[in-house]
């Protein structure tokens, strides 16, 4: 157990986030770093509470987080009035997510579910389609993007907002280009240095964080069009 952190959310709110250091992949034995709180989740949570909700009010909405880790962005959405919030990740991460839901007294509106990107099963279809999908630190491995795209296409409907935050790394552009090649529109809506003490590790970390707004492919959109990633203000 790493311990608990009190995270201040703009608007006078606080969330308790427990981080775990004893969560491992059962096949490889490697530590699952999703059980730690990373800066990109802090950036996304702060942006949601300070400005994004003014453009897209969260009260009464349904929210899904993919690769939720500690669940900070989704828990922030619940504080901002979302009516139904679903946190998803791989199995070993779920006990930590459940602990954070319980620690913040949000169990009446927040549920925790296992979800593996690219899986198409009854459990996934029963989740339904959401008003908002949240992601942080998912643009790392371009090879995972086809599975992520399939999942997004399953849980989103026309008009669903998709907000993703991450540290800008060498592979970030390649990951985003994979999604654009599948017909997604990607708009960068925020770029900033992290405001939090960095938990990032590795030579590939830039210290610059971005938030992206993704839009589902149109039904008539051609695949494999030239990648275009825009920078603009969220509207």
Automatic annotation (TrEMBL):
<dbReference type="Pfam" id="PF10294">
    <property type="entry name" value="Methyltransf_16"/>
</dbReference>
<protein>
    <submittedName>
        <fullName>Uncharacterized protein</fullName>
    </submittedName>
</protein>
<dbReference type="InterPro" id="IPR019410">
    <property type="entry name" value="Methyltransf_16"/>
</dbReference>
<dbReference type="InterPro" id="IPR029063">
    <property type="entry name" value="SAM-dependent_MTases_sf"/>
</dbReference>
């Amino acid at each position: 157990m790493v311990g608990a952190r009190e995270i201040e959310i703009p608007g006078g709110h606080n969330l308790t986030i427990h981080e775990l250091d004893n969560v491992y992949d059962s096949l490889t034995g490697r530590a699952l770093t999703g059980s730690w709180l990373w800066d990109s989740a802090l950036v996304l949570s702060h942006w949601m509470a300070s400005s994004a909700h003014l453009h897209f009010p969260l009260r009464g909405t349904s929210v899904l987080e993919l690769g939720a880790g500690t669940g900070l962005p989704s828990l922030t959405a619940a504080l901002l009035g979302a009516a139904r919030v679903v946190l998803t990740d791989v199995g070993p991460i779920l006990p930590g997510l459940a602990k954070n839901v319980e620690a913040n007294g949000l169990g009446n509106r927040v549920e925790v579910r296992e979800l593996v990107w690219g899986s198409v099963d009854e459990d996934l279809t029963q989740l339904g389609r959401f008003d908002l999908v949240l992601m942080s630190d998912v643009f790392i491995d371009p090879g995972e993007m086809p599975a992520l795209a399939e999942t997004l296409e399953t849980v989103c409907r026309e008009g669903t907002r998709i907000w993703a935050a991450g540290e800008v790394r060498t592979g970030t552009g390649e990951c985003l280009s994979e999604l654009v090649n599948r017909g997604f529109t990607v708009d960068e809506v925020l770029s900033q240095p992290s405001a939090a003490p960095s938990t990032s590790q590795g030579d590939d970390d830039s210290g610059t964080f971005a938030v992206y707004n993704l839009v589902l492919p149109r039904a008539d959109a051609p695949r494999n069009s030239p990648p275009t990633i825009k920078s603009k203000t969220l509207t």
